[in-house]
Automatic annotation (TrEMBL):
This is OsmC family protein. Its EC number is 1.11.1.-. Keywords: Oxidoreductase, Peroxidase. It comes from Mariniflexile ostreae. GO terms for molecular function: peroxidase activity. The keyword Endoplasmic reticulum does not apply. InterPro entries: KH_dom-like_a/b (IPR015946), OsmC/Ohr_fam (IPR003718), OsmC/Ohrsf (IPR036102).
Length: 140
């Protein structure tokens, strides 16, 4: 199976990229002259792809395991190398689960399954970055 996208230059430092889902997105460099950027920066988009990929795995497992979770989020802190081409060499990915009745053991299992088995974007990141995964439980 292959994915095919088309990315079209819109002039200046802005591109529009198609997506197999049919939803297009804009990619831009940092805003110039105070212009409001509507688009995503390419490397930051990689982090969103990583969080989204793993997040979808975990959301699916929460549903499958019938777990009670009020909310969850994923924070990523990534270190960019100094030399060109700059790339992420280390990152910390923190899963935050919120709820009054969190099954910590099963939620940790869901995170582990995504990190170790299911998330293809995670596997790609592993080829070039040192990954540190954290899980935090916030009971209320």
């Amino acid at each position: 199976m292959t994915n095919q996208i088309t990315t079209k230059w819109l002039g200046g430092m802005k591109f529009e990229s198609t997506n197999p889902s049919g939803n297009n997105l804009f990619i831009e460099a940092s805003p110039e002259d105070g212009a409001q950027a509507e688009g995503y920066r390419p490397k930051a988009l990689m982090l969103s792809a990583l969080a989204g990929c793993s997040g979808l795995d975990v959301a699916s497992l929460i549903k499958k395991m019938k777990l009670e979770v009020a909310d969850f989020s994923i924070d990523i802190d990534a270190n960019l190398t100094e030399e060109d081409p700059k790339f992420y060499d280390k990152l910390t990915m923190a899963f935050h689960f919120y709820g009054s009745d969190l099954n910590e053991k099963k939620l940790q299992r869901a995170v582990d399954l995504s990190v170790e088995k299911y998330c293809g974007v995670m596997e790609m990141f592993r080829q070039f970055a040192e990954l540190n995964i954290e899980t935090h439980f916030h009971k209320h």
